[in-house]
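Changelog-adjacent note: as of this version, every example in the card shows the full chain rather than a window. The one below runs 168 residues end to end.
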Amino acid sequence: MMKQGVLIVDDDASVRESIRRVLKGAGYEVKTAADAEEATVKFVPEEIDLVLLDLNLRSHSGWDVFERLTTQHPALPIIIITGMPNQYQTAVAAGVGALIEKPIEVTSLLKTMDELLAEPKEARLRRMCGYQLDTRHLRRPPSAGAGKKLPPATIRTRQRPNPNVVPP
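Full-length structure tokens:
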């Protein structure tokens, strides 16, 4: 069986690398992109099964990338990962599969990815068309929680490091 492919689009190199390492360790084929242009070049429909997309990119908004990808591939599962507040209503209106607020809790990310990858294509299309309002929303995790630990070098916090989150 082929590994499932994931494209991580985030302008923060430390976030991209942290998530890339976690997903590689979980058995995914991973590509990364730092901006909208690179995401467009690296998105190959035959190789990418899911996209993790930050909203705050340098050249274009993540919403622009979302629109570009879903216009051509409406059934593509996309998880918005963001540190920006108040994005849930926009995510629901856009038909996003999941909105995860940074910092990202690894166990929740992997579970959400599994759920979206297992979801029938018809369910994703219904969400995209506004017939199904079931966007998953993972708010900022509490400072303590269970989950897979990342290596200490991948954690950036101002307070005591929490090994259960990917840096914002």
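Structural remarks: The radius of gyration is 15 Å.
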